[in-house]
């Protein structure tokens, strides 16, 4: 059957080895011709990254076309042509789905299922990673050529030389004499034993403009020995450029960009004597002093490591001050407070003033308030509906394949009747041949008759064949948004009410995936601090493997039950304890079977913006 086809091509400049629009269109034309389909129209977008949607006129025109004419297939070369963003794919998908238009790709040679499309656009995050990698590679090559431009270090300014056309030659730098003076002064001070904090205070007092930020801070000067960041570590001051020391990537848990040190073998060192500000002698003195303070340095590093190994609290690392955007951290015993407020450091965002948010909040209190708001907030965003819908679809597929009880019995009945007929045939054959009757054959015939009668009776009692529609209706009632909400609610309930940390622990990671950050704000007098919870809604669905959640809930329930029985003295012997644990294990294995049919797939729906809701 012929199909009406729209072809869509996209070219983005941010990818190397990109297939040109012309090539994509050629591939599409051949594909359509090979199948005897009809190419109705071709749409294309160029030089726009796949992640922006509204600025792609081609795809918009394509969707408009689908609305006005019957289109069977939208074809593109690969799935990531459509979009490299889950949310935008969903938008496109919804439209096409509504008009019964299928998506095909030349690459797959077949229709792409909606779930697959979702998953592929999720997977193309990998692509983003690849681009990042390529950019780094490109930078390396540029560094070898000596033309790369990265951030301008303190002490330098852009070169003012112009080429024959009078255009400023890009990428050139030169020493800024005034800043170079400050750099040398900082090196001298430090080599003479003055601490970076005192140096920073001195510079601020003299109103010396700081690099990037408004004020000098001790770490601007001291930096990080390992990463070799900070003024005292900058090798450009002795005429050396070290490239590719670290790379940045976004931590998916915290959404923060974190710097990671590259292996030393990946570093690229170029000598640029014209950039030298500090003498080798002064540099050496500074290095010497850094070594003697290395002991302090490694102590703080160890502390930092220890901190990451400590079991994290529910909201560790997610708390932000509403006033200064600094972090809220445990201050006094079990109380969170703004770190910047406590340290009284000038904050750039506040024009150099100190943060005045003095609100502190008890950890337990904060966790309770955040947890109690989550289920309701999800409900408002239709998450339960989506999860329930997905679960229902999976279950419906399962129901479809399940053999019917009546069908099974009548199958067995037919087999028994066939066997009966064969034995009767044997008996009459023997009689015709004048051979004596065999008791064994008679017995078999009796047994078969008994079985046949039994099956017939069961068939009569078997419930009338259930309508598929009926089954789905029942399923809808069972797997409803309300049921999902109930499951989530109980998870949060256990987080709140059963404070023993062992019961809580399995939930911490689940709940942490739902929350992006919590912003804590000032309120007058003794009123409790204001909270603003930012949810990471897209990842909720990813975390929403219902089976896993139910298993955790089951575990929590049983653990609680066990502890209660323990406290009540019901489990006074090892034997009793073991018996109960075995019973749990058995129950769990049965339940697991049930749950394995309610897998919710890892697909984020459209419209799940990270949203904020207030408490
Ligand atoms: Zn603050």
Automatic annotation (TrEMBL):
Domain of life where this protein originates: Bacteria
Coiled coil regions, renumbered to chain: 438-465
Protein name from the UniProt record: Recombinase family protein
PANTHER family associated with the record: DNA RECOMBINASE-RELATED, DNA-INVERTASE FROM LAMBDOID PROPHAGE
UniProt keyword list: Coiled coil
Annotated InterPro entries: DNA_bind_recomb_sf, DNA_bind_recombinase_dom, Resolv_N, Resolvase-like_N_sf, SSR_resolvase
Source organism: Rhizobium grahamii
Pfam families the record matches: Recombinase, Resolvase
Gene3D superfamilies, per the entry: Putative Large Serine Recombinase, Chain B, Domain 2 (3.90.1750.20), Resolvase, N-terminal catalytic domain (3.40.50.1390)
All copies of domain Resolvase/invertase-type recombinase catalytic, residue ranges: 4-146
Annotated ranges, domain Recombinase: 153-296
Gene Ontology MF annotations: DNA binding; DNA strand exchange activity
